[in-house]
Amino acid sequence: MSRRVLHIIDSLRPTETAGQLLVLAKGLAASGLDVHVASMAGNSAFATSFRNAGIQVTELNCRWAVDPIAFARLQRLLRHLRPELVHTWDFHAGKHGRAAARIAGVRRFIASQCRISPSVAPWHWLIEHRLNSFTNRVVFSSEAVRDWYLRRGRLNDRPAIIRPGVAVSHVSSVTRD
């Protein structure tokens, strides 16, 4: 049985964050991991790109900032998949994903923060602070995003910066000549 990873993302709209997840998911799958993606939103056109790459996608159809029905769907998915690692992408998915995974018994968590979220309500920060207490690693896409969270006291002692990557292109058979 291969090692299983579940990535949870706010949505699979064609954004930079979803593009980064696609690059990572393809690479992890190519290395032999069993990779799954859960999108908090539904009807995501970019989900086809994941499925075409052989990545299983579940769309949770979350309708509100706190959606108990989508949360229950996510818990069922987690209990079914039993992933070794849950990797959440951005704030909304991080809030739902880490809480549901913790309840489902997952022990390893990575939370990626790829953008600044100035409109987040203060009570959300309390949740984020609690979730960070059991998150193994918080990954930021840049120093600016990390520093923004740091100024708000929202980091655990395990932050990392991983800049956006690009897919490796195929070598062309065309010569310089």
Any overview of this molecule?
- This protein is of the alpha/beta class and 177 residues long.
- The protein has 6 helices and 7 strands.
- The protein has helices at 16-30, 47-52, 68-81, 91-103, 122-132, 143-151; strands at residues 4-9, 34-39, 56-59, 85-89, 108-113, 137-140, 159-161.
- A 7-stranded parallel β-sheet has the order 3-2-1-4-5-6-7, with helices on both faces.
- Helix 3 packs across helix 4 and helix 4 (91-103) packs across helix 5 (122-132).
- The longest helix has 15 residues, at 16-30.
- The termini are far apart.
- The mean pLDDT is 86.
Unreliable spans are none
Question: N-to-C SSE series?
Answer: EHEHEHEHEHEHE
Q: What proportion strand? A: 15-25%
Question: How helical, in percent, are the residues?
Answer: 25-40%
Overall, the morphology is globular
Query: How is the quaternary structure best described?
Result: single chain
By DSSP (H or I, 4+ residues per run), the number of helices equals 6
In round numbers, the mean pLDDT is 86
Broad structural category: alpha/beta
Mind describing the biggest β-sheet?
7 strands, parallel
Strand order of the largest sheet: 3-2-1-4-5-6-7
End-to-end Cα distance, whole Å, is: 48 Å
Query: What's the number of extended β-strand segments?
Result: 7
Rg computed from alpha carbons, rounded to a whole number of angstroms: 17 Å
